[in-house]
Amino acid sequence: MPQYILNRLGQSAVVLVLVSLIGFIVLNLAPGGPMSQFALNPGMSQAELDRIAEQMGLKRPLMVQYFEWFTRLFIGDWGHSFRDGRPVLSVIAGHLPATLLLMGTATVLSVIVGTWVGVLGAVRRYSVFDTLATVGAMVALSIPTFWFGLVAIFLFSLHLGWLPAGNMYTIGDRSLGDYATHLILPVAVLALVNVAIWSRYMRSATLDVIDQDFVRTARAKGLPYRRVLTHHVIRNALLPMITLAGLQIPTILGGALVTETVFTWPGMGRLFLDSLGYSDYPVIMGILMFSAILVLLGNLLADLLVGVADPRVRLG
Amino acid sequence: MSTVATYPSFSGRLAWFSNPTLARFMRHKLAVLGVVMITLLVLACVFGPYLLHYTDLSIDIRNRFSPPLTGNHYLGTDALGRDTAARLLNAGRISLTVGFFAMLISTLIGTLIGVVAGYYRGWIGAALMRFVDAFLSFPSVFLVLVLAAFIKPSPTMITLIIAVTSWMEISRIVEAEIRSLRERDFTLAARMVGASHRWIMFRELVPNAIGPIIVAATLTIANAILLEAYISFLGYGIQPPLPSWGNMLNAAQQYLGNAPWLAIIPGLAITLAVTSFNFIGDGLRDALDGRSDLK
After folding, report:
1. Yes or no: is domain B19-50+80-287 CATH 3.40.50.300?
2. Nearest by CB to B282, which of A138, A147, A254?
3. CA-CA distance, A193 to A253, in Å (whole number)?
4. Which ipTM did the prediction report?
């Protein structure tokens, strides 16, 4: 096990270096690169631009620049926003809670609903419910999230007037209920795709378990079917889902970005788009790196958790 | 079951109507529906614009915001009085073309990397797969948006951007497939008769992995169409006046209250196309996997 953890950590470290390389290349690919913040300033002469580039260390070889940038990432110096000069990490930290609230709520909801739909579909295989759930999941995976958001806004805010069309709270009213009503639409939209994915995998995981001997044994002992389902089938079917949850992080993060843009949710997705609009490269890079690290950590955690949760899995 | 040929047939010796792969595919009703829908959609986009009363750029200024089914505007008009039906079909040409070519390119990249990584294993394979992992660590939407914001958008560039951010799944699938295929006897036989590495990889291994590649490619089209729609919706993709399903939605967003059809119609077109490709992919998965007969 320690050997495995070390291996896995080493792999993640290699991937992280590659991620940072891709990030650095993308940043330098940008028109004007890090100097683009001054490009639109007419008061700057070429000599001044050269001097700043010299000061910022942009005249050195790219390899040297990369190593400096990379080591700075570790000491928490992710650069400063072109827009307001604030450190990138604190800008991201300011937008992180909103995204985590959205992602967290949607994930919990989709795990609960997805597990339920998946197990029920597997238990009543080929029933009307199962067929509907299968087709429904396929369609849900095909609906563009942002369009679904637009339709939801049209129906529930503009047409029926039940729910707010966007934002996280009403100005002047930041009660819990206010947050909750603002959460409903974005969470529902974000959860739709994830319920679809989760229920599909849960269905096949349940089917893998449901015909095994220990389930038959439990039934033969005379345990009620419900108890066999909850204590024997679902428990075992959920094990491979831990890995899936880790692998789903990029999808959920990407989905959150899409959802946030439609519902003007003040999270990282919104920040990302605003930064794109302002060509605020340090923040863009920061978010790219931050999400990649989040994904790597999530995958690593999921892999280790499987080993803890399932003693049969011998890591190594 | 034992009387049926167990090989997913790429032998080409069977007549098409008795081909078990085709038979399995035809049994998958939703997949057949998907093929029919895509065929209709492509035909409509190719020939439809010639049958309409308006082109996608002609402006009917007195009939702005007409709802569907007014006069000759079958699907209504937008803020400039342009015919929604004409724009929808022309947008379909763009969106479907971008999706198709993005799939083609990313399948090529993904297969190439997957084959090399799976065949050579060792440090080359490990390095390539870590490279794949690194790309997979970015949510693809983020990466696509960054590239699209940097690079001057044209349909060709958008296609390339989508392609270079969606090849990873395919290379993972191919790598796993090649890794098991390279241990089989026919690979050994090929090596024994002195076939070169390149011959073994592309003439022996890839043709045997074509099933999973086709399935993944179909699902890649679906995703590419969604990605194009999203970045065009945000204004970083296909630029107006060139219509795409995504940028039609961008324009429609601000008139959501009084002209909802402008938002609903292109979204339905996207959903229809993507659902169809997903159904086809699902059907192909069942059809190309010979074992599915046993279930």
Report:
1. no
2. A138
3. 12
4. 0.83
